[in-house]
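Handout, section B. The chain below has 122 residues.
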Amino acid sequence: VQLMESGGGSVQAGGSLRLTCTGSGYGHTYNSYCLGWFRQPPGKERGPVARVESDGSTNYAAVVKGRFTVSRDNSVTSLYLQMDSLKPEDTAMYYCASTFFCSSAVEDWGVWGQGALVTVTS
């Protein structure tokens, strides 16, 4: 199984970006997975941003709640992250990941994408 992010780029503060994560090799099991977005700012550790469970329920990190929206479309094995009202502190490499059992711990997620760079300028 593989995940691949797209949609990163550079945007001014207050702007928006939409990340897409496309899965392959999951077959009929994709809709059973918990899917998540993580980010790693320069010089810092990777941490959770948002996740969407197999039943569609969502969870957000406090620093992005109300600005970011996570969603999934199982019919096209895709995960999305709509990022609005972006701030310079949102600058990071963004990764998507999948796991059977949702967790906030990075080490509990087994499959990762290669990352997409998001840069927010002031």
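Note. The mean pLDDT is 97. Compare this with the example in section A.
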